[in-house]
Write a sequence for this structure.
């Protein structure tokens, strides 16, 4: 043993990272191992995104990064320097009015326990943008013109939201709520 060795493990690497979270700039000293979900929930107090499986399989942690939906439990926060992160809390309008999808979920009673709902809503917001940009899904008609907006029929909605699980089985009402917004 080296006479200078204290026996303590070296501190994990940290980096200063600046994110815009729900429109607000945040500069943070981040442990390189910290995932976005833990940063949002534990450091910033934004508890909408939920820790479901912690393996990127359930979608309860879905948020938007630069407008694209992501599983925040898998994304290292330090990789997001300069990114725009939007959580379910940030979807409301400037006057605090609910996002149209939030309103539709309430009107359609598109949840039971509500645990998956923030991830479902963020995923639906991202899905609407993807379809509008012409990104095909597994069920998109191969004859559909490339790059044109994809028509969101029920099968498209269900396929595009299939990465977000609901243990209560509220899928029909979730699809109804999305249909109400398109």
């Amino acid at each position: 043993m080296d006479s200078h060795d204290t026996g303590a493990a070296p501190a994990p690497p940290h980096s200063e990272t600046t994110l815009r979270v729900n429109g607000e700039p945040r500069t943070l000293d981040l442990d390189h191992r910290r995932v976005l979900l833990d940063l949002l929930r534990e450091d910033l107090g934004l508890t909408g995104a939920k820790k479901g499986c912690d393996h990127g399989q359930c979608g309860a942690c879905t948020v938007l990064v630069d407008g694209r939906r992501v599983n925040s439990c898998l994304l290292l926060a330090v990789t997001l320097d300069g990114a725009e992160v939007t959580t379910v809390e940030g979807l409301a309008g400037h006057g605090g009015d609910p996002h149209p999808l939030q309103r539709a979920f309430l009107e359609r009673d598109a949840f039971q326990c509500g645990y998956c709902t923030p991830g479902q809503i963020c995923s639906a917001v991202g899905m609407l943008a993807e379809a509008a940009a012409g990104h095909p899904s597994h069920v998109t008609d191969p004859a559909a013109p490339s790059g044109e907006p994809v028509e969101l029929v029920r099968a498209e909605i269900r396929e595009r939201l299939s990465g977000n699980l609901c243990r209560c089985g509220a899928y029909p009402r979730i699809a109804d709520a999305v249909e109400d917004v398109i």
Notes: The mean pLDDT is 94. The first strand starts at residue 14 and ends at 21. Strands lie at 14-21, 24-31, 62-65, 68-71, 84-86.
